[in-house]
Design goal:
This protein is an alpha/beta fold and 397 residues long. It has three helices and 28 strands. The radius of gyration is 41 Å and the shape is flat.
């Protein structure tokens, strides 16, 4: 991998076209360090005899070290990209792989074909589309057109505006207004500090925590579960085929499929609409069994975990049984070889010699005892019938 250094201004504009993986980090020097095996660098305008603009094209992997105040334009990156610690702004027109962004300012993203991960992104973050999942933490204001996978946003300093999330959506600690158009699966909301407008959720909505004064609206095709602080002001209007209320509401007016009530005298107006159930309860969970409705837990992958556990258990039992069978077979082979060696030795070394002269009756008794012994050896499998016949002939002869 070759290395090239280009002296630049403290805040150059760098255009990148990379056919491989891209790694960008910053340093305190007013220079760009290019490391790559097949890249071409073109210098642009100069300012005070220093390069203010670089165009870098790479046919393979590329590693860059740039001034901290540099501005980056990436079009396109065909591999994965990691960009860190650049404050001049980033414009990612197209990324074909996964994108990781950390400690950047003012980010504009066109299309990411993989997953997107962004941490510590101050200023404005604009995302056109992400084909995979998106995970954002510690960001400024966020504008998203479409995320085709799941999306999670935690800790924002500004507003969040979203047009379309095809997967699940999780939002936590948003310090600005929240405006969502379409969420195709479930959404979880917690610690929201601005006005909330959720136009259409195809799945379920879970909202935990109080809201600021003003008008808030949530609409879902599935269920809406609201966990509200017991003493936080609330003016509530809920509409659903089934409404289950565990809040200490006053001035309750309840009709079929409709409920209104309030807590305190504040001006926090919350409108809930669901085609499934609306469940209202305190933010602190109770210990009563009849308060359990399953919404606190996620059983989506329970079946897979159960099947995996059973499969592992069966495989372990099979392995143990196979090992035991192999051990028993080995011992049986050892016994068989020992018996075979004994038979071969007996064939080569006759065990019985001619009996000493004696009376006819004693000779007859000895011969019968020897015959019985030979028959028992055949019965036990120590010798074969042919070998027994040979021994009997030798005794009788």
């Amino acid at each position: 991998m070759s290395k090239q250094r280009f002296e630049t201004t403290k805040a150059p504009h760098i255009h990148l076209d990379c056919s491989g993986d891209l790694r960008v980090n910053s340093w305190a020097e007013a220079a760009v360090l290019v490391r790559g095996s097949d890249c071409q660098v073109t210098k642009g305008e100069k300012k005070d005899d220093l390069t203010d603009n670089l165009i870098i094209q790479s046919q393979s992997d590329l590693h860059l070290t740039v001034p901290a105040n540099a501005t980056l334009t990436l079009s396109p990156v065909h591999g994965d990209a990691i960009v860190k610690n650049v404050s001049g702004g980033l414009n990612l027109i197209e990324g074909m792989g996964d994108i990781v962004l950390n400690n950047l300012q003012n980010v504009d993203i066109g299309t990411v074909h993989g997953d997107l991960s962004g941490h510590n992104l101050s200023g404005d973050l604009a995302i056109n589309e992400v084909m995979g999942d998106a995970s954002l933490r510690n960001v400024g204001s966020v504008t998203i057109n479409t995320v085709y996978g799941d999306c999670a946003i935690k800790n924002t300093d500004g507003a969040v505006e979203v047009q379309n999330i095809m997967g699940d959506f999780s939002l936590r600690s948003v310090h600005g207004n929240l405006d969502l158009e379409e969420i195709h699966r479930d959404i979880n909301l917690r610690n929201l500090s601005g006005l909330v407008n959720v136009a259409h959720v195809y799945g379920d909505v879970r909202l935990t925590g109080g809201l600021i004064p003003g008008k808030h609206h949530l609409k879902a095709d599935g269920d809406i579960v609201l966990r509200w602080p017991a003493h936080a002001p609330l003016q509530l209007e809920a509409t659903a085929p089934k409404i289950r209320n565990r809040l200490a509401l006053t001035d309750v007016v309840e009709e079929e499929g409709h409920l209104t009530g309030r807590i305190g005298d504040g001006e926090t107006f919350l409108i809930l609409e669901a085609n499934g159930r609306i469940i209202l309860k305190d933010v602190q969970p109770t210990t009563e069994w009849d308060d359990f409705d399953g919404t606190e837990f996620d059983f989506s992958d329970f079946g897979e975990k159960l099947v995996s556990g059973i499969t592992n258990m069966v495989e372990e039992k099979t392995r143990q049984a196979t090992a035991a069978a192999e051990e028993a077979t080995a011992k049986a082979m050892q016994h068989f070889e020992k018996a075979a060696r004994q038979v071969r030795w007996q064939s080569d070394h006759p065990m019985w010699k001619p009996a000493a002269p004696a009376t006819p009756s004693k000779e007859r008794q000895a011969t019968e005892a020897e015959q019985l012994k030979i028959l028992k050896m055949v019965e036990k499998g120590i010798i074969s019938p042919d070998e027994a016949s040979t021994l009997l002939e030798a005794i009788e002869g």
